[in-house]
């Protein structure tokens, strides 16, 4: 059985289906399924755009058919960033995901908020360096550092950031060493002149 192969323009979309207009026949189809890689226990969803140029196969009367997918034409040109060995997805708002297997580089540029959620552990491993850059980085929960901790600027904490350390000076409303409070403690064995006092009194 010969199935006609036709190009058309998407006129309506809904999840998993599309209606296609064939200009040369002046015909608009009913809802035709859009070809997917999986559809049973695994799902994927990326609806076609209205006015998308698509390729279809259908019966001779164009009563039943399948939308194979979008194809380029003179108006909808290929991605200018495409190249050998590159996987790219570019969205209308500018968000882009790219992997270049020649440079082994994975890049994602998101025009908005990005969220990663996992029911288990999340592990990020690098053989060189991991860099986080943002006006503010917030860790919610207990933070354990295995190894050396180096910083520049001021390290602060406590109620309203009352405790601070800039690498040279430690400032706090109250500082204790063991049972000795720094700002109010007294010494034993105090003598006049140049003598040395005894140890602090708790």
Describe the protein's architecture and organization.
There is one protein chain. The chain has about 200 residues and is mainly beta. It has 3 domains: about 5-70, OB fold (Dihydrolipoamide Acetyltransferase, E2P) (Beta Barrel); about 80-115, no CATH class; about 155-200, no CATH class. It has no helices and 16 strands. It has strands at about 5-15, 15-20, 25-30, 30-35, 55-60, 65-70, 85-90, 95-100, 105-110, 155, 165, 170, 175, 180, 185, 200. Strands 1, 2, 3, 4, 5 and 6 form a 6-stranded antiparallel sheet that branches. The chain has a 3-stranded antiparallel sheet with strand order 7-8-9, with no helix packed on it. Strands 10-11-12 form a 3-stranded antiparallel sheet, with no helix packed on it. Strand 8 (about 95-100) and strand 9 (about 105-110) form a beta hairpin. The protein is rod-shaped, with a radius of gyration of 33 Å. The model has no long low-confidence stretch (mean pLDDT about 85).
Write the layout of secondary structure elements.
Layout lengths: L4 E10 L2 E6 L4 E2 L3 E2 L19 E6 L6 E6 L15 E5 L5 E5 L4 E5 L45 E3 L5 E3 L4 E2 L4 E2 L2 E2 L4 E2 L12 E2 L1
Antiparallel strand pairs: 1-2, 1-5, 2-3, 2-4, 5-6, 7-8, 8-9, 10-11, 11-12, 13-14, 15-16
